[in-house]
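Hi everyone, sorry if this is the wrong subforum. Our group has a chain we'd like a structural model of before ordering constructs, and none of us has done structure prediction before. Sequence below.
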Amino acid sequence: MSATGKIDPRNPPQWIKAMIERAAGTDGLHVRVEARRTAGAGSARIVALGAGTFAAPLPEGWSFHRGPPYEGRIRPNEGYDIHFCIDSHEDADAAAGGEALMRYAGEPEFKDKVTTPSEILNDFLISIPGKDAPGRDIVWKCVEPFRGTHVRELVFRCPLVNEELVEHRAAIACAIGEWMGLGRFSPEPTALDRVAHSATLERANFQNTILMRVPRGWKVEDTSEADEVRKLYAVDHREKRETIWVTSQLFDLPEYDDARIPQAVMARFADAAWHRTGDKKAWLSRQREELDDGDLLFTAVSEEEERGSPLRRITWTRWAVRDDVMIMALFHLVTSKEFVDDPEHIERAATMDREVRNAILMKPPA
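Answer:
Right subforum, don't worry. Here is the predicted structure as tokens:
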């Protein structure tokens, strides 16, 4: 299985099983034939994009190449590249299917061609360059309003980098369109939906390891020294009332055959850190818990002084295993003590707690 999401190939969800069965029973062009063979073999390779937000059978001979979150490329066995990017937005107006949906057809290839929301809703969009094709892209786009609250968008591009691709651009457009038709968006909310851009929150990428929403309009700054491998980020309130600090550490894990082994290693590291920090500091409150995905989360509140100014610090430490790497992610919300009883801060602390829990932790691309 090639995937960017958490879909267990040994026990895939029902919607994935239905998708494979549908591919196995479909006749058609090359891409469908290959998908049928793959599914019929009983060990279908599924490519899951955007933390399992969109999934499709990966035909035999095709390869998946991970890029920055959530981008990458898929290479059919003919050797050309299909670049993709996938995203999710909290946008109830657009999710209702009205005129607001038009902002999701803003690519130059579609801007003057797509004129009504129904064109977006009926099928995926496709743009095939004409006489000026060399150097341009074939573009496919899927837009899915989801549950009245979100809009998901998936874009594929095939750069026409040589005369052979230009000559066969219509066939390429058809083949990839057929393959896209075999895919499905998840019927359930995914991790990407939980970090969707919204009117008040925007997703920040912290060193390709942490994807988390922060208040829109706050300044994100790398405060690390140039030679530091792991970066420390500050996210500052516009009026300097409070600052969010974010950093992470990565630890290589030994090879293992039993999935329980890395979880046990993580638990041992986390226990040691819990007891070590507990002995060194007086905490106003402190708790630990296991999240639904098996990650561990420590939450602590303390008071301190910096340059004579009293501060309140809420610290979240989240431990995770991703492939052969253990991640320790640290989040701090530091607030001037004079503002800790403000309703704005109280709401901000609750928002931060939710966003830390929903943050996507991942092994950075090689």
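For your construct planning: The longest helix spans residues 260-280. The domain at 200-361 is CATH 3.40.1000.10 (Protein Transport Mog1p; Chain A).
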